Amino acid sequence: FVRGDAVVDNLADRLGLRKGDLLGVKDKLSSGDAAVRLALGETQIIEENREYFRNHGVDMDALVSADGSDNSIKRSNTGILVKNLPYDTREEELTKLFHVGEAPLKVLLPPSRTIALVEYGHSSDAKRAFKKLAYRRFKHVPIYLEWAPLTAKTSGPREGSKNNTTAENDAVETKESSLADQQDAEMTVDEGTVSATIYVKNLNFRTTESALQEVFEKAVGGVRAVRIPTKASVVRTDDEDAKLLSMGYGFVELAPPELAKKAINKLQGKLVDGHEWALSISSKQNQKQKQGRQGDTSTKNQTKLMVRNVPFQATRQELLKLFGSFGTLRKARLPKKFDGTHRGFAFVEFLTAKEAQTAMASLAGTHLYGRHLVLEWASEDDNDLDKLRDKAKRDAGVMARPQNKRIKFT
After folding, report:
1. Which of 115, 90, 118 has its CA nearest to residue 102?
2. Most buried of 147, 225, 368, 408 (most Cβ within 10 A)?
3. pLDDT tens-place string over residues 109-165
4. Residue 81: enclosing H or E segment and its boundaries?
């Protein structure tokens, strides 16, 4: 969440302009494109934040795409995202603010000062700080805290050509070793992933998550998360722990992903609590990776975007200005209802696929009139004018249909 006033303050200070000049407002009269200018400014700030975090070993794309309501995303217990920061925030102020018990190991604050990442050395210190500072007033605004996604952490920061050369050599060695690993189909881990998840079958129902984690820690280490799915017991009992039963399998996430093969080699067939384990790379993870690769190839030549969650006060001209900043538009369409108002979504077609991909990547986290624009690649069904017109006619017919009233004779 990036504050609009922080975006304006940042750009005005950097460019040496007044806020009114930046938004196209003069003598309290707006030029009509203030919302578009603010959206483009937010897009620039987000791109700069992405580059800053990338140079410090953090994947900003994971931070942006992670929705707090999605429980499937594994999150860190030591890293805290700090959002809704004002522009005059300083790193020293955040370090002092988050010094709850123990000082944080590091505080990453990009030059835009709109978002920060605070990392603690121990989970207990992070939880204490999170509980105390969530929604606390900082300067003149409340700060929003969120546990950082685990997938946001990459192999490490990029700090110079020497480090880059070392990283390239490491990447070559990793690639060569991965080619040998691909001979075993069950242990294939897609190149470029941050972590790998192992599927453990034939668990004893008494085996706990802590016991499962202890075995992997002793064998290979690098355990990020452990989960054993449970189900409700059909037998009623007063014991709270007995109400949930293990389903006999579990998942262990390891990082770096090279540890997955090592763990399978060491623990395959291991006897724990009287049960012989069967280990393999999680098929769900491999399926997601294949779908991602297929999606990349299928959208490589796409030029049409579907824009959802378009604010109802937005106009076609504003969409032309916003998306036209990333390339030449072939057409832009804002479907309307029978009463003249639009339906809350739009279709934008670029001249080339490269321009469409640039707009898709740049505007993924942009807000227009305070609403987050949701971008998708348009399908053929989405562009079917006849279907949209038929739906509009049906809606108009329902509204115009006379209501039958019963007449009472007295």
Report:
1. 118
2. 368
3. 888 888 889 999 888 999 999 999 988 898 888 988 988 876 555 545 554 434 444
4. strand 75-83
Q: Output helix, strand, coil percentages for the chain, rounded to the nearest 5.
A: 40, 20, 40
- For strands 329-333 and 278-281, give the pairing: unpaired
Query: Could you tell me what percent of the chain has a pLDDT over 90?
Result: 9
Phi, psi (5° rounding) for residue 148? -70, 140
For 311, the token pair is: 């604010």
Q: Compute the Cα dihedral for 318, 319, 324, 326 and give only its sign.
A: positive
Structure tokens at 120: 């603690």
Cβ burial of 112 (10 Å; 0-12, 13-18, 19+) is buried
Owner of token pair 């378009």: 310
Alpha carbon distances (Å) from 66 to 228, 301, 407: 23, 27, 59
Q: How many CB atoms lie within 10 A of CB 233?
A: 12
3-state secondary structure at position 304: strand
Among 310, 313, 361, which Cα is nearest to 333's?
Answer: 310
DSSP string across 313-382: T--HHHHHHHHHTTS-EEEEE--B-TTS-B-S-EEEEESSHHHHHHHHHHSTT-EETTEE-EEEEPPTTT
Is the N-terminal amide bond of 256 cis, ω within 30° of 0? yes
Alpha-helix runs per DSSP H in 299-343: 316-324
